Structures are given as structure tokens and as C-alpha cells.
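Okay, can you check this protein?
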Amino acid sequence: MAVAVVVSGVGVAAAEPYPPFPPDQNQLPQLPTEPDLYDLLPIPTPSEDPWYDTPSDIGSYVPGQIIRTRNVQTRVLGIPFPVDTKQLLYRTNDVRDNPIATATSVITPGIPWQGSPRPVVSFQEAIDATNSACNPSYTLQTGTMKEAALVVGWLAQGFAINIPDFDGQFNTFNTQDEGKMVLDSLRAMKNDTTLGLTNSGIALYGYSGGGSGSIRAAEQRATYAPDVNLLGTAFGGTPADLRAQARYAVLQQPGLTGISNFTMWLGFASLSREFPDVFDAEELLTPEGRTILRDMESRCVYTIALSGMYRPISDYFQPGKTLETAPGVVDVLEAQSLGKHIPDTPLFWFHGMWDELIPPAVVLPTVNDYWNRGADLRFVTIPLPEHVVNAFAGWPPAVAWISAVLRGLPPGPRIKADFQLPASWNLPGS
């Protein structure tokens, strides 16, 4: 369907044309957006679906309180999948603790579970998007959730799966409220007694942007949601220090590492929603940069990545402007970085030693800080290149570890297996 739409142009909204690009930048033509393609499907997108509407009295709800529910059909690659899926719209908080509503999807397999409450894996997908049509509560229904196949191993064991829209209805990205949205989705799940999961043990999983939501929830559980029975968190490929990540991704990078440029376009578009006075496109970007940014403000991760890779945002700063010197930017990035709290539950953290999107230099200082402050941590460096390759390499041990802790087995000893590589290796971000 996507190919047909691209070729014919039927039903795809016209966008503001891209400016001409320098010859050393990404030369891909302007791509159709995923939400435009979703508009052609019979299932209404969240922006058109009144089920997602925030009630006018949202402030009277408590975090995790259910606003409304519904049962939906889950699909994988468009094919109906034989599981029970219940969606919950619930109250949570944004980065400034204002009340907001977002959704979660709770999937229960038909496999009976006896002897204890059915365990739950809260699966945080790498949403990494700027439009609500990219959120898993919608893509589970259309069969386009990009990580859907990864939950099958847990479903086959009889575990329930919680999949929250942890970037909210307005799709912010890499901010501390991701943790609140994850934790409040689990409260909502517990509050729906028809699910039978009120007393379940819970584990968190996520990679890349999904790892961000997972570890933020683990960091905040003790202070924000001690009522959530969290047994462990497995995650990887996650930017820990957003200042270091921005310094890396904002500049032109050689070879494969140039793909990382898209993360700063995504970050700017998302952070400008939470911090518009700081991430101010009118103040920081040229007219050409603002045109590209507007196009990035309603896309899913695939076309954001294709459009933003090998296109450094620093080439579109106003003369004399940088993220480092723009008032408030560094402060926001520091405040939204990991390490504000040390998780009080077991962790399994993996990262590739040659990750072109999130280099080890962005991660290892926080790993060391966790370790030195006594986190119950198992950190493993995967000796493979490339961000997506490491997602697949880290997933099997994460599944095994989560399956063990949910069945009551010990999480294993603390491990810090980080590679200390010589500077002559010249890895990304070093």
C-alpha cells in the first residue's frame, strides 16, 4: 500500500517543499509521512478518534486512574493475532506534573496461568515519533507496530504484555515524564480488576527510545510509584547523557555514523513541545532549518530517520548560534538525562561497543555512576557494530533474564563488563 501511495500520490497531503540541499548532505526527496498513509486505513488515527479525548476534568483524576477502556483487535503485519487486547486511557503527568491522558494496551494470551498471579512484561517500544498515529495503541490495531514480533516469546510463556504510549498523545521524547507514563500505565493495569493483574510481578523491557522509557520508570519507581511491584528492568541502546548525545548528533559525522544526525532533528522537534521557550526554532534555526523541522513534526521514526540522516542540524543554525550557547538548552538536556535517581530494583543493561547512533561515550559515565552508587546492575557490552544489530543481539539474553526474574529466580550477581578500548580505535563519540 505504501508503495502505491508513494507512486500515485493519491490521498497524501502536500507538504511545504524542502529547500535545496548542499551536495554533501542527504539528497533523498521529500517523503510521504506515515500519518498520511494511515489516513487511508479504515481505523481512525488517534487525532480523529474520540476515544483518546482528554476529559475536561482531568485534574480530578489521580495518576493511573482509568478514564475509559475498550477491547481491540491486535494485528501483526496486518494479520489478526489470537490474543485478548484491552486498551486503557488513563491519567498521568507531564514533565511539569500537569495532568494529561495517554493510553496503554494490555495483551493477555489464551494460555492459562496457575499458582500465582500472571506475570507482566511492560514492553516500551522505541516510538521515537512526532505524531500520535505512530503510538503502539494505534499501530497494534493496524498491524504496523515495528517491534510487535518481539513480544511473542513472552506471550508464548503465558505472560501478559503491557504496551504504553509513554511519549503521550503529543509525542515528546527523552524526557523524565516518560517514566511517569510507564508507571501510571501499570497502575491503570492494576486498577482494572477484570484483567486479573492487580497483584502481578512486573518487569520492564525496552531498547533505544523504548529503553529510555523503561529505565526512567525504574529510576522513578521508589519516589513516584512505590505501589508498582517491579522485579527487574532489561534495556539497552539508550542515550544516558543527553548533553553528550546532542554534541555528537548535531555535527556532520563520517561514514555510517552520519545516520545519527536524525536523532537531533527528532530531539529538537519533540523537546520544543515541552520546552518551547528553550528549543525555539525561530531563534535558533535558519528559514531552511525551520522548513525541515516543520516537516519533521508529524512523522514516525522511519521517515524521520531517512529524512534526517546525513543532514546535520548544525548546518541550519542561525549565524553564531549553537545548542551549547543557546540559553537554557544545556540545562534542559542535563535535567532530562539519566542518573537523577538510582533504581532500587535489579537491572540488565546492554550496549554495543560500536553504536553509530548512541556511542558508548554517551553511556559509560552513567553506567559507572550507577555502579559506584550501588545499583543492582548487570552491564554487558556487546562486541558488535550498529544500533539495530545490537537490538537483536541483546534481545535473547534480555528475554531469558526477564523470564527468570518473573518466575522468582534470583537476578544474578552484579556485573560491569564494559570494554575499556584504546583511543586509537576512534569509535563514534570517543
Q: What stands out?
A: The chain is about 30% helix and 15% strand. The chain has a mean pLDDT of 92. The first strand starts at residue 66 and ends at 72. The two ends are 42 Å apart (CA to CA).
